[in-house]
Amino acid sequence: MPLTRPEYRERLIDKKVCDYLKIFGAVNIEGPKWCGKTWTSLNHAESVVYIGNPENNFQNRAMAELNPVLVLDGKFPRLIDEWQEVPELWDAVRFQVDKDGLKGKFILTGSATPQHKGILHSGTGRIGRLKMRTMSLFESGDSSGKISLKEIFYNKIEPVYVEGNTLENLINLTIRGGWPGSLGLDINLSQELSVAYLKNVIEDDMYKLDGIKRDYKKVKLFLKSLARNESTVVSNRTLKNDLMEHEGENIDVNTIADYLNIFNRLFLIEDQPAYSPNIRSSIRVGKSPKRHFIDPSLAIAALGANYNMLYNDLNTFGLLFESLCIRDLKCYAEVDGGKVFHYRDEKGREADAIVELNNGKWGVFEIKLGANQIDDAAKKLLELNKFFIENKKSEPPSVLGVITGIGNMAYTREDGVSVIPITALKN
């Protein structure tokens, strides 16, 4: 029987883990700390070894360093938690999988991408890789799930009433974030978790990853600069100028590149890549990604913002709300092999999100906090759709949608644009 914890709340990635255990000899589940990787893995594992367990002077880690095979013996699927602390485990798992070709032998979890030094083989064909995120609103129980992202690519939305879309609720959900440990906590306590998360990254995780001591103050200010530019296309030089303008701090662009690299390896931030409708398309599109914190609560923590500050600065909160919606869209799309992009071309045409399904169907979405912005967003989507249709080298989108915050109805407008409150959406 799996080692499922009694309090475990089912996650969207569970189905993907089941599928991968049938396809690969081992599955590597990676993602940010505290997002629930271990509990999800226990939901599928029959035995477990915790490499980071401090008992008996970190005996498990010492055994793995002495001989990785010593910690691989156990009932399958066997969970090896925080394997990256002993990178040699990767090759040991790959070798064990190769010996008999059996599927579903191991589950690996990791909250950081290790250096490639010491790893001889990629594991291609033997170890399947899955990225786990913080909880979407549907997973945390804050979305009714009345509207399926996948289904709207095939059928128009019939009118559905939606509850819970007040500004106050949306701000609280964004501050809380998708951390399983924050569910049920007072909003002030949940915000402390995000603050502690960033503090732990700066003071401990960065050094543990590569052994380099960095300036605590500069890293903290740089995170604040990233948060000021949340949900935007921003270059390293722009970040450098932002730090000079707002903090009076000068950081070399090479140092910025180093920070971004390690934040990506720690799954603290990630890019939302740019989209081109067709590889043969004549459309000249921007190639720069949008950059997001892995969870909007971390951007709020980096800014040092609180509920009142966000309530009184809706321009800033609008960008953070967009980040929350992108997080959820990625959760919903990726579980079925989809991807999420943004769009911007040389004529200034742009869209907040492009969702591409695994069968090639794609949709264009604008993200708007207020219901009073729906008409303008729909007009923009229709103009963009007309352009895509006229550009005959690309297939037109299957759906045009406005994802809203404040508003209590999901429906399809007469012009064909779908209106979807984020608290009604699921995969």
Summarize the structure.
The chain is of the alpha/beta class.
Account of the protein in words:
This protein has helices at residues 13-23, 37-42, 55-66, 88-100, 137-140, 167-176, 187-210, 216-228, 236-247, 253-265, 296-303, 307-311, 314-334, 374-390, and strands at 26-30, 47-50, 78-81, 106-110, 127-131, 147-148, 160-161, 269-272, 290-293, 339-344, 350-356, 362-368, 399-404, 409-412, 418-421, 425-426. With 427 residues, the chain is of the alpha/beta class. The protein has 2 domains: 13-131, 3-Layer(aba) Sandwich (Rossmann fold), CATH 3.40.50; 137-426, no CATH class. The longest helix has 24 residues, at 187-210. The protein is globular. The two termini are 28 Å apart.
Oligomer: single chain
Low-pLDDT parts are: none
Q: How much β-strand is present in the residues?
A: 15-25%
Which value, in Å, is the CA radius of gyration? Answer: 22 Å
How many extended strands?
16
Q: How would you sum up the global shape? A: globular
Main beta sheet: 7 strands, mixed
Largest beta sheet: what is the strand line-up? 7-14-15-13-12-11-10
End-to-end distance, in Å? Answer: 28 Å
Question: Helices, strands, pairings?
Answer:
Elements: H1 13-23, E1 26-30, H2 37-42, E2 47-50, H3 55-66, E3 78-81, H4 88-100, E4 106-110, E5 127-131, H5 137-140, E6 147-148, E7 160-161, H6 167-176, H7 187-210, H8 216-228, H9 236-247, H10 253-265, E8 269-272, E9 290-293, H11 296-303, H12 307-311, H13 314-334, E10 339-344, E11 350-356, E12 362-368, H14 374-390, E13 399-404, E14 409-412, E15 418-421, E16 425-426
Parallel strand pairs: 1-4, 1-5, 2-3, 3-4, 6-16, 12-13, 13-15
Antiparallel strand pairs: 7-14, 8-9, 10-11, 11-12, 14-15
Helix pairs in contact: 7-11, 8-9, 8-11
